[in-house]
Amino acid sequence: MYKIVFSLSRHLFHRFDDSTFGSNTQEMGNLALLHKYSQGHVIPLLELARVLARHGIQITFVNIDIIHDRIVDTSSPWIRMVSIPDGLQSHERLVPGRSLEVWYDSMPQKIEQMIKENRVSEDEKFSCVISDQSFGRIQQVAKKMGIGSVAFLPAAAASLVLGFNIPKMIEDGIVDREGTPLKHETIHFAPAMPNIDASGFTWASTRSLSLQKVIFNIMTQNNETIKSADWIICNSIHDLEPGAFSLAPQIVPIGPLLARNQPGNSAGHFLEHDSTCLEWLDHQPVHSVIYVAFGSTTIFSTSQFQELALGLELTGKPFLWVTRAENSTTGAGNQAFPAGFLKRISSRGLIINEAPQQKVLSHPSIACFLSHCGWNSTVESVSNGVPMLCLPYFADQFMNRSYITDIWKVGLPFLHDDGGIIRKEEIKNKVDQVLGDDTFKQRALQLQKITQASACEGGDSTKNFMNFVKWIHG
Q: What is the pTM of this model?
C-alpha cells in the first residue's frame, strides 16, 4: 500500500474593500475587513488526489479546520480527509497576511507530527508528501523524514517562473526587497510568456502593503526549498505555456487535472451546486449564453457591481451569472442590484449562488465566459473551447489575462474609465466583439484540441503523470 500525505495550501485571504474593483474616495468610507477563503487551490489538489487514488494510492488529505468544515463534496474511499487547527488567535484573523505567516510557520511541524502518529508499519509508511508549492518548507519536512517530496503548482507555470526570477528583479532594481515595484514597466521573460505589468505581480496586486510583504517574503523563501523537491508538478499543459516550461524545465506539466475527472464531477467545493441551471441552459440557443463567474474571493464595489449588471442587461443576450451577497461590498444580496434589474432580465437571465462549472462550460449553449481569470477557470474554459472576457481581481489572474488576450488570443480585456470603473457600455462593446468575431471561437477550439490531446492516452501530460505514478510506486 502506497500512502501519500497531501498538505493543502493556505489561501486564507484578508481583503480591504478599498482594493476592490472600481473603489473610489466616496466608497472608501465603507471600509470593512473581510476574511475570504479561496477554492482555487482546494479543487485542483483534491482532483490530483482523486486521480492518484484510482492508481491504488491511499491518500491522507490535510486541511486546516476552517476549510475542512466547508468542503461539501468528498472524494473516494481511498482518500482520508483530516484537518488541523490553523493556530490563529481570533484577533489575528483581522490582520492582513497574518494567517499566512502563522500557517507558514506552524504547518511543517504539524505535518511532521501527523506523519509520525500515523506510521503503522514499514509496509504502510508514507511514500511522499505532496504540498502546495506555496509552502516550500514542507519539502524540508519530507527530506528530514526520509520520504519523497513533491511540490504541486495549481496555477500556471508562469507564476512560478515569476517567483524564480525575484532575485534577478531585485538585482535589476525592478522591485525592492519587500516586493514594492520601483519601475512601473512591463516584464516579458521569454517569447510565448505573458506580459506582466509591475502592478500585476502576484504580490503587488493585493493592494495591501502588509499582505504584499508577507506574500513576497514567502515566495522568496520558497524559491530554494521548492527546487529541492523530488518533483515539481503543475496543473498545466506544455503547449499552453512553452515559454515558461523552457525557462523552468524542472516544472513538469500533468494537466489539465479536471479533464481526467470527466464528466465534470469535481470535488472540493464550499457550496452545493445548483444543477437546475443545466436545465435552463438546455432551453437556450446554441452559443448564445454569456456565463459569468468570478471565483470565491472577488469583491466588487457597489458601483462596479451595478455597472456589471447593467452591462449584461445592455447586451440583450441571455446570461447565467454566478454571484453571492459577498461578491459586493454591500453584502446586501438582491439589494445590490440596480432598481428593477431582476424584473427586467427575468426572461433571459439566471442568477444563482453556485454552478457546476465544468458542466456549464461544456454545454453547447455557452457562447463565452466572463471571468476573473483564475487558473482553474482559465484551463476549464480553453479545455471546452470557450472564448473569454477578462476581469481579473488580484494575484496571478493578471498574468492569466495576458495569456488569454495576448498569447492565445481567445478573449479580450476590459478598459476602465478614469475612476477605475468598467462601464456598462464597455461590457456590451467587448461582448459584441468576442461574439461577433468567429476567430476567437476558432482559436478557442484549437486550444481545446491541444488540451484534450495532452490529457488523452499518449499525450504529453498523461505520460508525465504516469511517470510520476511509477515514481510513487517505486
A: 0.85
Q: How many CB atoms lie within 10 A of CB 446?
A: 13
Residues 6 or more apart in contact with residue 108 via CB below 8 angstroms: 135, 137, 138, 140, 141
pLDDT for 35? 30
Question: How is 342-359 classified by DSSP, letter by letter?
Answer: HHHTTTTEEEES---HHH
Tell me which DSSP letter residue 204 carries.
Answer: G
Residue 85 forms beta bridges with which residues?
none
439: Cβ–Cβ under 8 A, 6 or more apart, which residues?
409
> Is the distance from CB of 298 to CB of 392 less than 8 angstroms?
no
Residue 290: all three cell numbers together: 454569456
Mark the ranges of the chain whose per-residue pLDDT is less than 50: 1, 9-37, 263-264, 268, 329-332
Rg over CA atoms, the chain = 22
> To which CATH superfamily is domain 276-451 assigned?
Glycogen Phosphorylase B; (3.40.50.2000)
User: Where exactly are the structural domains of the chain?
Assistant: 2-264+455-473, 276-451
The model's pLDDT over 46-90, given as tens digits with 9 standing for 90+, comes to 889 888 988 888 888 887 756 655 555 555 677 887 777 666 666
In this structure, the strands spanning 319-322 and 289-293 are: parallel
What letter represents residue 462's amino acid? Answer: T
Amino acid (1-letter code) at residue 153: L
Evaluate whether 2-264+455-473 and 276-451 have a shared fold: yes
Q: How far apart are CA 70 and CA 65, in angstroms?
A: 9
Compute the distance between CA of residue 241 and CA of residue 332 in angstroms, rounded to an integer: 40
Q: Cα–Cα distance between 213 and 178 in angstroms, integer?
A: 6
Name which of 329, 308, 271 is nearest 15 in CA terms.
329
Domain 2-264+455-473, CATH: 3.40.50.2000
- pLDDT tens digits, one per residue of 317-373: 999 999 865 555 444 455 589 999 999 999 999 999 889 999 999 999 999 999 999
